[in-house]
Amino acid sequence: MAVAGPPFEALTEELLAARLAALLSNHGHVPQSKHGDCLRDLREVVRERIKGARDGRWSKADLLAELIRHGGSLAPHRE
User: Fold this and answer.
1) Which of 39, 44, 51, 53 has the most neighbouring CB atoms within 10 Å?
2) What's the pTM value of the predicted model, to 2 decimals?
3) How many CB atoms lie under 10 A from the CB of residue 70?
4) Residue 24: closest CA among 71, 56, 60, 62
């Protein structure tokens, strides 16, 4: 999924934070109150993969498990 906007080099921390929050809310369905914890844990998982955990691979199932741990899902919530 491509996110339209300026090239990565032009992203400010504020813009990046806004995009990540939108992705967590709109696609991961993570409650806003859990965004901070979710991002912290996702950063840690990325660090582990960079260090070679699971051969540096991250599956869709791994990502979904992190989203679910923070109250998210891939399916939209019904109101």
Assistant:
1) 39
2) 0.76
3) 21
4) 71
